[in-house]
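User: Reviewer 2 asked us to show a designed sequence for the structure in our supplementary figure. I'm pasting the structure tokens here. Could you produce the per-position amino acids so we can include them in the response letter?
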């Protein structure tokens, strides 16, 4: 569509025929990408460890999900505690190794995202929050500095920033949004649209009950080796065993 940065006639013709709404949408998409990219580049963030998970899982000191959905989520609140501890341990190591170019990044909202940001905050690690405008449970959590919190209208741009600098992806239990992020990451790695990075599914009982990707391999819908794209972990220590070497490798390269 372009040649050396110059729009082709086909592109100009397409732009002329686009509706004002489409042009505005394209501008908004570009703004969401470029504004966050500029902020992260200015902060010299080169490496991230991304942490996904439900916005509905409460802290242990809370008893119910917030909002209209009053289903009990208290049986999942140990994941909040684990996400907080894990992030504190990772953030502490990043700070100890003085890896100024490496950050933990979360979805910026409540639940698991709050837990991860909170753990980082506990050890004075400045995590990054990629928030999304949603009608219900999403809100900015108080454990991310304003300059490190970014709000998105479009999931696509948010997911791109989640993954562009990622050296590992840790996925706690969550709903449709979490599964969307998980399967897009698996797809991008499978199709070699992004470098292969460890994908860690936290919570063996939850994940083994929810998905059985071996069925896909049995029917030839994925290759057997695709099952190696993710690992199920069941404790903070087990997750650290796989992520600490990644941080140490970053430290060794001095990047």
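Assistant: Here is a per-position design you can include in the supplement:
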């Amino acid at each position: 569509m372009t040649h050396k940065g110059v729009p082709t006639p086909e592109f100009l013709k397409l732009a002329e025929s686009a509706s004002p709404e489409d042009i505005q949408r394209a501008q908004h998409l570009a703004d969401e990408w470029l504004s966050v990219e500029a902020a992260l580049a200015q902060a010299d963030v080169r490496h991230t460890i991304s942490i996904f998970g439900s916005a509905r899982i409460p802290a242990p000191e809370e008893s119910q999900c917030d909002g209209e959905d009053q289903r009990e989520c208290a049986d999942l609140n140990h994941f909040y505690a684990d996400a907080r501890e894990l992030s504190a341990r990772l953030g502490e190591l990043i700070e100890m190794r003085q890896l100024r170019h490496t950050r933990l990044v979360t979805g910026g909202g409540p639940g698991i995202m709050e837990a991860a940001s909170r753990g980082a905050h506990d050890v004075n690690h400045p995590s990054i929050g990629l928030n999304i405008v949603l009608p219900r449970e999403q809100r900015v959590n108080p454990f991310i500095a304003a300059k490190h919190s970014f709000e998105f209208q479009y999931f696509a741009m948010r997911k791109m920033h989640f993954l562009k600098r990622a050296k590992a992806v840790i996925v706690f239990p969550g709903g449709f949004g979490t599964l969307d992020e998980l399967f897009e990451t698996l797809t991008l790695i499978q199709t070699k649209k992004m470098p292969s990075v460890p994908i860690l599914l936290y919570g063996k009982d939850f994940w083994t009950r929810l998905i059985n990707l071996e069925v896909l391999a049995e029917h030839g819908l994925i290759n057997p080796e695709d099952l190696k794209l993710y690992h199920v972990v069941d404790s903070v220590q087990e997750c650290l065993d796989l992520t600490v070497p990644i941080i140490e490798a970053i430290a060794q390269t001095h990047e």
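For the response letter, you might also mention the following. Residues 47-253 form a domain with the Rossmann fold fold (CATH 3.40.50.450). The first strand starts at residue 2 and ends at 3.
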